Amino acid sequence: MSKNAKNIVIAVVIVVVAALAYVVMTTPEQRTAGETIEDAVGELDNGVDNAARELEDRTPAEKVEDAVEDATDSNQ
Fold this sequence. Notes:
Number of helices: 4
Mean pLDDT: 88
Strand content: under 5%
Number of strands: 0
Radius of gyration: 19 Å
């Protein structure tokens, strides 16, 4: 396999992986109402704001953003 062909294969793999990551991170939640409430009750120990956030429909990307924000929040 030539160097040019290897570069094309690598580029295609990167594009496919990026597209799959985008789809996974923007997929709407599939939780049932019971699971949503259970998650909210479980988050009550971490504050009412976190519990209320669990009641919202959020994508995995939004959840990651919230987790990063909570981890870097100096008020905790």
